[in-house]
């Protein structure tokens, strides 16, 4: 447990060093207002990383989250464009519901048909994108077709922070409670840490994974609304390639791809690392084209570091580690 | 991500013919014939030698990578960075072109960059014992990221005319160079996997890496060689693709890794390692090419086709599992 703690502290320290290095040349970047902007800009990635974390904890992986987000975003945007009268909270609930349904579809295939999660979500990733094209006919939903209230919600200020940031903060708090204080949250760790032992303690492994996928889907649905309303546009390719950013945020945050290891703090810090890098590059006058290579290097370093830390724990003697990957 | 599955050991082997009839490859051939007939019936333009020849360009480059990827997945690893290797190799070729490289140098640069990227992946996975799925997600960003750093929003063009032959040339009548190359690559990997000791080692590693290690298989070295070969094939695909398109952008071959993996899995290779065959992947590649081409002739947009690819992937993996379940062969959690 102390090792886990120290890993998050190390990551937080790395982010602080990064911030300090930027502040040395560009003090404006660390102004509270700007840092709040960076957080707001990373809010959606944080919410998605929290969802992905649950799935990865149970030794699964969800490659379809970005496609799920795009489909839910398109559905709520089209609903808003055709029936502007629907109250926004209802619309958000609807988006979450659609997302949960799509996540449950992944989950049921993993649970009942026992297809490896990577195959399932590779398939549904393309299916979801295809469905967006079918329902939208390849058309965009543009800003002028959305109602003012639809676009205003993520920007609405509350105590100095935009609503989007508050939603992310609420998601972090709820997830921290859920994952550490509820039987289901603990079951995620048990299933990922040792599925066989989990069965003998009375946990239904398949059902737990199903619930992880469903909850991750619900968060993707919520993010779908947030994404579409924030950028005020919906089309087939929104958040294209974002699924790997989500996984990368988790990996950087110290969540083990072999399952059972990880924390809410890690996922949030991993996402924030991405956010700081992305927002700092234009400030320190490095071409944004560097971002991809930097995040790639960060992922490789993080996974190497994670592997070293996991090996040092020395509790995996009897587990078939090869079967885990 | 897997659980141990109870292995079913029969007391008597099936005869050669029944096992051939029930094999995955037979099913794939049936699907391929079905797709072919449906296409031929639905479009008068399908049964034309030149059109069919054009159709092969849809899959040859991806299928070359899929051959090497099949061995890698059978050995229990995966490489998600193949499309990024194409981008980096293509960018390197464009860069070499700016320094006055001719066609032979361009080919060498492409192959070398592919090998180097494969070696880097292999070094990270075998040298440090890291999970390949995350490592190659990382190198995928890194390789394509380097291509973006070099190119930004620009493009390399102006490849020499004789270089274009690698992507557009024909060896004989409608038989393109790419098709011949793909056939040779498939033959090479087929022989390597099914007729050599190295191939048996690949299966052994996929089924039980620890057991293979204790049996004297140099697990790390075999895996490293597999990563090298996957990188080399990506370099080869980069040469063909660059020659065919005649230009390099950093977004070249975007998201191909998912299509390559789909091809391999559709070909009957177990995503968890240990089983699969090259003929299966070969037929799966042809099926995907035919389907793409047929939908294209029927004016179905590519993205709608992806629904079909996704459903095919899930159905093809899920159906046998459900079939076994219905026959009462329970699997333990």
Descriptive notes:
The complex is a heterodimer of chains A (325) and B (333). Chain A is mainly alpha-helical and 325 residues long. Chain A has helices spanning 2-25, 32-57, 65-82, 88-111, 117-136, 148-152, 163-181, 183-193, 195-200, 205-231, 242-252, 264-283, 291-313, and strands at residues 157-158, 161-162. A two-stranded antiparallel sheet of chain A has the order 1-2. In chain A, helix 2 (32-57) crosses helix 11 (242-252). Chain A is globular and about 55 Å long. With 333 residues, chain B is an all-alpha fold. Chain B has a single domain (44-325), classed as ABC transporter involved in vitamin B12 uptake, BtuC. Chain B is built from 15 helices and four strands. In chain B, the strands form two sheets. A two-stranded antiparallel ribbon of chain B has the order 1-4. In chain B, 47% of the residues are buried. The chains are: A mainly alpha (325), B mainly alpha (333). At the A-B interface, helix 5, helix 9, helix 11 and helix 13 of A face helix 7, helix 13 and helix 15 of B.
Topology at a glance:
The complex is a heterodimer of chains A (325) and B (333).
Chain A: H1 2-25, H2 32-57, H3 65-82, H4 88-111, H5 117-136, H6 148-152, E1 157-158, E2 161-162, H7 163-181, H8 183-193, H9 195-200, H10 205-231, H11 242-252, H12 264-283, H13 291-313
Antiparallel strand pairs in A: 1-2
Helix pairs in contact in A: 1-12, 2-7, 2-8, 2-10, 2-11, 2-12, 3-4, 3-5, 3-10, 4-5, 4-10, 7-8, 8-10, 11-12, 11-13
Chain B: H1 16-21, H2 24-42, H3 49-56, H4 60-74, H5 82-98, H6 103-128, H7 132-151, E1 156-157, H8 161-168, E2 170-172, E3 175-176, H9 177-195, H10 197-207, H11 209-214, H12 219-245, E4 247-248, H13 256-266, H14 278-297, H15 302-326
Antiparallel strand pairs in B: 1-4, 2-3
Organism (chain B): Chelativorans intermedius
Main location (chain B): membrane
Keywords (chain B): Cell inner membrane, Cell membrane, Membrane, Transmembrane, Transmembrane helix, Transport
């Amino acid at each position: 447990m102390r090792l886990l703690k120290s890993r998050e502290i190390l990551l937080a320290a790395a982010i602080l060093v990064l911030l300090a290095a930027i502040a040395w040349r560009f003090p404006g970047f660390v102004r509270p207002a700007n840092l709040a902007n960076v957080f707001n800009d990373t809010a959606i990635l944080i919410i998605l990383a929290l969802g992905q974390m649950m799935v990865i904890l149970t030794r699964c992986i969800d490659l379809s989250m970005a496609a799920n987000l795009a489909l839910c975003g398109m559905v709520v945007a089209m609903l808003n464009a055709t029936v502007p009268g629907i109250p926004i909270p209802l619309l958000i609930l609807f988006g979450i519901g659609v997302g949960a349904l799509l996540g449950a579809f992944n989950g049921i295939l993993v649970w009942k048909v026992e297809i490896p999660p990577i195959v399932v979500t590779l398939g549904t990733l393309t299916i979801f994108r295809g469905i967006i094209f079918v329902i939208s006919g390849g058309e965009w939903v543009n800003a002028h077709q959305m109602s003012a209230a639809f676009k205003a919600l993520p920007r609405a200020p509350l105590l100095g922070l935009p609503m989007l940031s508050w939603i992310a903060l609420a998601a972090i708090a709820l997830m921290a409670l859920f994952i550490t204080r509820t039987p289901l949250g603990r079951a995620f760790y048990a299933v990922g840490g040792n599925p066989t032992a989990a069965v003998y303690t009375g946990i239904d492994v398949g059902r737990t994974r199903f619930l992880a996928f469903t909850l991750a889907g619900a968060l993707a649905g919520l993010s779908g609304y947030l994404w579409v309303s924030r950028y005020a546009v919906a089309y087939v390719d929104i958040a294209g390639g974002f699924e790997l950013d989500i996984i990368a945020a988790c990996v950087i945050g110290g969540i083990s791809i072999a399952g059972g290891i990880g924390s809410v703090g890690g996922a949030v810090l991993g996402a924030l690392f991405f956010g700081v890098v992305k927002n700092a590059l234009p400030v320190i006058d490095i071409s944004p084209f560097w971002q991809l290579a930097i995040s790639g290097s960060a992922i490789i370093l993080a996974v190497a570091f994670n592997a070293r830390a996991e090996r040092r724990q020395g509790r995996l003697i009897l587990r078939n580690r090869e079967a885990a990957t | 991500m897997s659980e141990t599955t109870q292995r079913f050991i029969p007391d008597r082997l099936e005869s050669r013919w029944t096992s051939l009839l029930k094999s995955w490859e037979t099913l794939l051939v049936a699907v391929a014939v079905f797709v072919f007939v449906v296409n031929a019936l639905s479009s008068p333009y399908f049964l034309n030698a030149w059109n069919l020849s054009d159709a092969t360009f849809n899959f040859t480059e991806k299928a070359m990578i899929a051959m090497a990827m099949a061995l890698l997945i059978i050995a229990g690893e995966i490489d998600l960075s193949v499309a990024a290797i194409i981008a980096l190799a293509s960018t390197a070729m464009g860069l070499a072109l700016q320094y006055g490289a001719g066609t032979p140098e361009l080919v060498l640069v492409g192959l070398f960059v592919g090998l180097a990227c494969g070696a880097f992946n292999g070094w990270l996975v075998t040298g440090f014992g890291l999970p390949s799925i995350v490592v190659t997600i990382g190198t995928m960003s890194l390789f394509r990221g380097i291509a973006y750093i070099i190119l930004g929003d620009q493009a390399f063009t102006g490849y020499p005319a004789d270089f274009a032959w690698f992507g557009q040339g024909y060896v004989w009548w409608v038989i393109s160079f790419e098709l011949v190359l793909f056939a040779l690559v498939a033959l090479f990997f087929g022989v390597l996997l099914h007729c050599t000791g190295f191939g048996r080692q690949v299966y052994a590693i996929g089924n039980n890496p620890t057991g293979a290690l204790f049996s004297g298989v140099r697990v790390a070295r075999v895996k490293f060689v597999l990563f090298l070969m996957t990188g080399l094939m990506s370099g080869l695909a980069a040469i063909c693709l660059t020659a065919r398109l005649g230009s390099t952008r950093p977004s070249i071959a975007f998201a191909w890794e998912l299509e390559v993996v789909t091809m391999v899995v559709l070909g009957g290779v177990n995503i968890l390692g240990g089983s699969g065959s090259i003929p299966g992947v070969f037929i799966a590649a042809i099926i995907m090419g035919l389907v793409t081409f047929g939908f294209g002739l029927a004016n179905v947009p590519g993205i709608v086709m992806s629904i079909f690819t996704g459903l095919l992937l899930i159905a093809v993996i899920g159906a046998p599992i459900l079939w076994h379940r219905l026959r009462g062969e329970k699997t333990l959690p």
